[in-house]
Amino acid sequence: MFRKRKNKDSLSKELVDYLGDHNLFKSHSARIGVKELRAKRVRVDIINKDEQLYDRVMRVYYSIVVTFQTTGAYKIFENSRGDALIRLIKTIPMQVPPVQRPRQPQQGAQG
């Protein structure tokens, strides 16, 4: 990311301090926008401009989403050779009875 820059050490420390600041990012799901990253001098590519790259990234993203939503997977590690370690929790399927709503009195009914 900063490999070819003369001040790569100071830029990387500044970015680590920024991204690691709990007061700025109180959640792992906090969005960090392109403008914020560019303000920190990070080179950011917009994947929407490259249709093939966008398609590939979205395929991986949706594969991960489906895996987390439909299995007991809670963490996935994968290397560049395709070897993976997937951590799972045991899930117990439960059938939940439908919610019964209270009956509404009919208009005009006398009780």
Describe this entry's structure for a reader.
- The chain has 111 residues and is an alpha+beta fold.
- The chain folds into two domains: 1-44, no CATH class; 47-88, no CATH class.
- The protein has three helices and two strands, in the order αααββ.
- It has a two-stranded antiparallel sheet with strand order 1-2.
- A hairpin with a 5-residue loop joins β1 (73-78) and β2 (84-88).
- The longest helix is centred in the middle third of the chain and has 20 residues, at 51-70.
- The protein is elongated and about 85 Å long.
- The termini are far apart.
- 0% of the residues are buried.
- The model has no long low-confidence stretch (mean pLDDT 88).
Keywords:
111 residues, alpha+beta, 2 domains, two-stranded antiparallel sheet, 3 helices, 34% helix
**Helix percentage range:** 25-40%
Largest sheet: 2 strands, antiparallel
Mean pLDDT comes to 88
Q: How many distinct domains?
A: 2
Estimated share of beta-strand residues = 5-15%
Dominant shape? elongated
Q: Helix- and strand-based class?
A: alpha+beta
Q: Write the H/E string, N to C.
A: HHHEE
Query: Termini, distance in Å?
Result: 76 Å
- Using the CA coordinates, give the radius of gyration: 24 Å
Number of strands: 2
What is the tally of helical segments? 3
Pick out the low-confidence regions.
none
Q: How are the strands of the largest sheet arranged?
A: 1-2
Quaternary state reads: single chain
Please write out the topology.
Layout: H1 8-19, H2 34-39, H3 51-70, E1 73-78, E2 84-88
Antiparallel strand pairs: 1-2
